[in-house]
Amino acid sequence: MSWEYLGYFASALLIASLTMSDVSKLRWFNLAGCIAFTAYGIAIAAWPVAITNGLLTFVNIYHLIKLKRQQQKPQ
């Protein structure tokens, strides 16, 4: 497999995430893109790419949990 395709796929996910008007969908697509970019960065030994997107993965997870908790609060 050409790792370049994984990089393009990750880019497409991140671009798609920024077109979402629903914040939850934005976070899910962005999370998938960050995970793909982390894998891509590891595969090609581009550590700044892997580390940055690995950290952004946790940022997205944090915000998804926060959104879920807000939705579960009784109004």
From TrEMBL:
<feature type="transmembrane region" description="Helical">
    <location>
        <begin position="37"/>
        <end position="65"/>
    </location>
</feature>
<keyword id="KW-0472">Membrane</keyword>
<keyword id="KW-1133">Transmembrane helix</keyword>
<protein>
    <submittedName>
        <fullName>YgjV family protein</fullName>
    </submittedName>
</protein>
<keyword id="KW-0812">Transmembrane</keyword>
